[in-house]
Amino acid sequence: MLQKLTIKNYAIIDHLEVDFSGNLNVITGETGAGKSILLGALSLILGERADPGVLYDKQSKCVIEGAFKVKKTQVAGFFQQYELDLEDQLIIRREISTAGKSRAFINDTPVNLSQLGELSQYLVDLHQQFDTLDLEKSDFQREVLDALVNQPALHQQYHQLFLRYVQVQKQLKQLQDQRNNANKELDYNKFLLDELNDAAFAPNEIEELDAELKILSHAEEIRTTLTRAYFQLKEDEQPILSQLRQIQTSVQGLSAFHKEAPAIAARLQSAYLELQDITAEIEQVNDQVQFDGARIEVVNERISTGYKLLKKHGVQTTAELLAIKEDLSVKVEGALNMDEQLAQLEKEQETLRESLRKQAAVITAARAKAAIPFEKDVNGLLAQIGMPNAQLKASIMQGGLNPYGQDTIEFLFDANKSGNFGPIRKVASGGELSRLMLCIKSLVAQSVALPTMIFDEIDTGISGEAARQVSIIMQAMARRHQVICITHQPQIAGKADAHYFVYKESKDGKVTTNVRILSREERINHIAQMLSGEKPTAAALENARELVK
């Protein structure tokens, strides 16, 4: 419920505050007084884009603020999704700077226009779910019937099942495409995999074989060099090890004469020990190196196979070759298992389709049942508001499964009892659409919790008894919901719980729009003026008193 609207520096409004009642709020005033400006300001806090040209004073910013009383259960999901603080009173503020920049806040937390627009659907029915233009759309017509059916759990269960059905269809299509492509490549991939399996290379095998071949190919050179080194170190007439030992002993003998001698002797000892280890290792390596012609042939053949495969697959190492082998293995195995996966998905798809058909049939039956009293009630209301010859019919045609069932719903309209019903979008005039919307809203409001409903001169073109009946319908709606109505009809103004008068006044040489709530006597006088002119007659005043009663 909109409790308070504050407008500063907007269009021809300097500053005004309006406190609304929770029932029927009527706004009246002369044409051009600024009634629609109020709705323009309200639309800004509902997420509409701002025009920097709306500033009343170009040197000050524009501020629009709305205070709403909300049921936490209705908006809890939105506040949780965007991590906003939820309180009993909801304050929405919109600011437009002198530079034309716009900012929006929910309970003093900055938000973007998209979030503001999303929240607005829970707060105000203004160009939103039940807008007059939407009446021509089949989606809206379906939503009306579903609102009257009022079984949200049934529709939610169906919708979740349909989402899974669509997901399975998508997976099935992707898998079928994959299988078709895989079947084309399966034979070739299997040939490549068999080739790699036959080669059976171990990790790093090609690199290790390459190193082994170098050793085998240069075995004689390696042995000659190592033998000579071993001989010079240990077996020569004057072995290097023996000479180093003698040198170390001689230097050690100088320890009594020079303080550096022991350190040099120790280093010589370390060098001697290191050369001893090197000599032993040379002997060991030399013993291991043997020329083996048969092994060279085996290694050469193995390396040749490896190089061919490396070149074939465009890689450089054994590890890359083994990775290709693993990938081929997965592809081949996947292709062989696809038929089983496809069969499972096809079975699930058929099960889901059958469940959807059964649930869709239940939804269709519920809609058909709701359509009968809906047509009767709408046609009855149309007669009340001055359209006795108009008739509405809800056509429900069954088709393919969709996110909302299996129905195509079309509201058909006949304005003159001709028996020729046509789609609303083709045969109903703007005025007829407005009356239809009012009738439909009043019925839907009995079944679901609509937000604050705003009617902007929906009563244009009617008078007398039809206007009185419209006022009765609005008054009935206002018992359950907050209704704000801009009107020129005295019959509707007389039903108001709160009556606001919009007027222009001159302030500091500028024309501004202002709003004030009327007292009972002011209401009677104003309604009398609406009936008979600026100077109401006694009869008009009496008539106004009757209307206010």
Could you walk me through the main structural features you see in this protein, from its secondary elements to its overall organization?
- The chain is of the alpha/beta class and 549 residues long.
- Among the domains are: 1-128 and 451-518, 3-Layer(aba) Sandwich (Rossmann fold); 205-316.
- It contains 17 helices and 15 strands.
- It has helices at 35-44, 72-81, 113-120, 138-149, 152-199, 205-217, 219-235, 240-252, 261-288, 293-313, 318-384, 424-427, 430-444, 464-478, 490-493, 520-532, 538-548, and strands spanning 2-10, 13-19, 24-29, 62-69, 89-96, 102-106, 109-111, 124-125, 391-402, 405-414, 422-423, 452-456, 483-486, 498-507, 510-517.
- The strands form 3 sheets. Strands 2-1-4-5-6-7 form a 6-stranded antiparallel β-sheet. Strands 8-12-13-3-14-15 form a 6-stranded mixed β-sheet.
- A hairpin with a 2-residue loop joins strand 1 (2-10) and strand 2 (13-19).
- It is elongated, with a radius of gyration of 46 Å.
- The relative contact order is 0.12.
